[in-house]
Amino acid sequence: MRQPRHRRAIRRGDIRLIDDRRLHGIVGKLLKDQDVADLTSRQEWLFEQCVLELERRWRALPAGQRCSCEYCVPGTYIIP
């Protein structure tokens, strides 16, 4: 019988290790979940940290390599 996987808390440093596609996916999933029910405080924190990390990465890239979605471009997405 398989043992259930235990989730560990995500820390700010862990978010920096997640690739861009997965960060976009997390943000999209949390936005979809928010349409159904209010996010928990942990989910809100994760959402905010993911958006901030995407913005940080956007600033670090040269202009030709930047993503232009609303989560990456600083100032285009207001975190609720």
Keywords:
globular, 0% strand, mainly alpha, 51% helix, 80 residues
What does this structure look like?
It is a single chain. The chain has 80 residues and is an all-alpha fold. The protein has a domain at 12-65. Helix content is 51%, strand content 0%. The protein is built from three helices and no strands. The chain has helices spanning 12-15, 20-36, 41-60. The mean pLDDT is 84.
Q: What are the low-pLDDT stretches, counting only 5+ consecutive residues below 50? A: none
Helix content: 40-55%
Spell out the helices and strands N to C.
HHH
Q: Which overall shape is indicated by the principal axes computed on the Cα atoms?
A: globular
Rg to the nearest angstrom?
A: 14 Å
Looking at the chains present, what oligomeric state does this protein adopt? single chain
Average residue pLDDT? 84
TL;DR?
The protein is mainly alpha-helical. The protein is built from three helices and no strands.
Blueprint of the fold:
Elements: H1 12-15, H2 20-36, H3 41-60
Helix pairs in contact: 2-3
